[in-house]
Design a protein that fits this description.
Blueprint: E1 6-15, E2 18-27, E3 36-44, H1 47-52, E4 65-66, E5 70-78, E6 88-92, E7 107-110, E8 115-117, H2 124-146, E9 156-158, H3 164-175, E10 180-184, H4 190-195, E11 200-203, H5 204-207, E12 220-225, H6 229-238, E13 239-247, H7 261-266, E14 269-272, H8 280-291, E15 305-307, H9 312-320, E16 328-330
Helix pairs in contact: 2-3, 2-8
The protein binds NADP nicotinamide-adenine-dinucleotide phosphate.
NADP nicotinamide-adenine-dinucleotide phosphate binds at residues 46-48, 132-133, 136, 160-166, 184-186, 204, 208, 226-227, 231, 248-252, 273-276, 319, 322, 324.
Amino acid sequence: MNTPNTSRAFTVGKTESGWARKVVDMPIDQLGEGDVLVQVEYSGINFKDGLASTESGRIARIDPLIGGVDLAGKVIESSNSNFKVGSSVIGHGYDIGVAHHGGFSQYARLQSSWLVPMPAGLDSRTAMMIGTAGYTAALSIDALEKAGLKPGSGPVLVTGATGGVGSVAVGMLALRGYEVVASTGKPENAEWLKKIGASEIIDRAETSAESPKPLERERWAGAVDCVGGATLAYIFRTLKYGCSVAASGLTGGTGISTTVMPFILRGVNLLGIDSVQTPIEPRKAMWQRIATDLKPTWLETQSVEIIGLGDLSEQLDKILAGKMRGRVLVNPHL
Ligand SMILES: NC(=O)c1ccc[n+]([C@@H]2O[C@H](COP(=O)([O-])OP(=O)(O)OC[C@H]3O[C@@H](n4cnc5c(N)ncnc54)[C@H](OP(=O)(O)O)[C@@H]3O)[C@@H](O)[C@H]2O)c1
């Protein structure tokens, strides 16, 4: 394939008339530094993409920025012999879509040291149905299991269950034989959550309630929390003795009002989860797990909304408003 001259791309940044989101034809030599040029087949939409698309989100670190923290596609140029032209790759983390142009573009120029060769059993579409959100879910489950969680330990709570991280966590935990309790603020999606693996649904109002009590009934053998704030404080109060919560997100707030009691009387653990700076070798290993023992069975059968760059702005507003269900994919060639 000849190198294209331009890449159709969704950019955000300051203009004379204020902050703007635009679809533009970006000259290919303005895609940034990197030894590999990837034809993007799919990107996905993450909460972080929503934040990066707004001035107040204070996430975009170049201006203009082609957003898209996730991408998967085919190598069309490479000066690294480990990444052959025609091979499929996944790119995410390392501030792609934040400080370096990302996946909301027909082409992306990237450092090969950031790229994961597509594992057998996944393709660009399924990899992006998982994306950073699913990778974060996988990191969370891995951390909980390393801290002692086993199928049969008891119910595992997933908060923000209809979102990207939450919905993939529900599917992965169910696949591994856990009893999954899904907390959601969207009761209309209860049946869908059961279909992808939840055995019980509880209302977000319950898991985000504030309480003066330092401890409540021991309930959860583990928790995957991407909500933070009052929800994380609720989890501390209700984890069983010696159990852990893997915390990755902040859709419910950044502050936590808690006491030390759950830690010093019940020995509960807070496991911090970061998907951005995972070194490349453990990142590749985690994607191998995602392609095998953590691969949600519903991936291939689940219908997924696929949009073009022109519809991105609306979807970014939707994820910021907490209204998205599961994953929405972006095909920049539509
Ligand atoms: N640490 C990392 O490396 C990492 C990686 C990926 C994502 N994250 C973070 O994880 C979080 C989720 O990301 P995502 O892409 O899954 O976002 P998402 O698709 O928007 O999912 C977030 C979910 O949180 C729930 N929610 C929204 N507003 C809420 C509120 N005010 N209070 C309580 N729950 C609320 C909603 O689920 P329900 O309606 O079902 O309750 C929503 O679907 C974000 O904060 C993101 O920045 C962190």
